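Thread: "does anyone have the structure for this chain?"

Original post by V.I.:
We have the sequence but no experimental structure in hand. Need at least a predicted one for the grant figures.
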Amino acid sequence: MRIAVIGSRRSWYTADLVRAAGARHTITPVAFGEMHARVSSTSAAVDVGASPLSAFDAVVVRTMPPGSLEQVVFRMDSLARLEASGVTVMNPARAIEAAVDKYLATAKLQAAGLLVPTTHACQTAGDAMDAFAALGGRAVIKPVFGGEGRGVTLLDDEAMALRAFSLLEQLDAVILLQEYVEHEGADLRLMVIGERVLGMRRANPDDWRTNISRGAKGEPLEVTTELAGLARTAAAAVGAPLAGVDLLPGRDGRLYAIEVNAVPGWRELCRVNGVDVASLVIDLLVEPRPS
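Reply from O.Q.:
Generated one for you, tokens below.
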């Protein structure tokens, strides 16, 4: 199988996929910025450099680099057209679009019956201040697009909140506020790979954010039938066959669905579980897709 990996050639994940593929499959790194498309009266194609992506059996999306709105929309549209032509794309463009948008992902998780923190998405500082008050004067502010805890801030001061919201309004940004769930400094990261679910507990004694990139450490986790079911439901809510699902045990005894990542990392998960995740990802690509 010929597999294109959209990501950095220097990425650990690209190298891990190359290692796992061995001699069975060919891995070719490509970049979003090199993607271009053409449409004529008789054909349509999506290429990277001089190579048609349709020549690959599968495409794995391993990065979501920043770009203008036009660039991001074009990249997703191109992936969708590639998928429509019969190439396996993981994750599908619709899944990436849903997961990367924290408002949309939260709405889809709620619609799927999962417990989510109360979330407000606003376009004006005034509406955001009303939401801040409704959340008790303490809220987590997040960028609508982003990951790894970047730009995530806990606000508990009215003056600071107004300053932040006013700046975001000036930038024409959507202001997303979320209920702060009291917790014990740890969350659960579950990785869905088709029907298989792996997991770890992420604990951070130095930061309320539990991202590995923020210094959290992975610990073993027993993936119960309940946890696996919640993870599969969350992944299915955004349409991602490969997903990282973050569940947060609150001090109130309830389990909150916080986020679904459609470009999930697995480096720490491999260390904690002793499982070759990259091989499982490739196996998922090889599996026949339901018609």
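V.I.: this helps a lot. The first helix runs from residue 12 to 21.
O.Q.: and The two ends are 20 Å apart (CA to CA).
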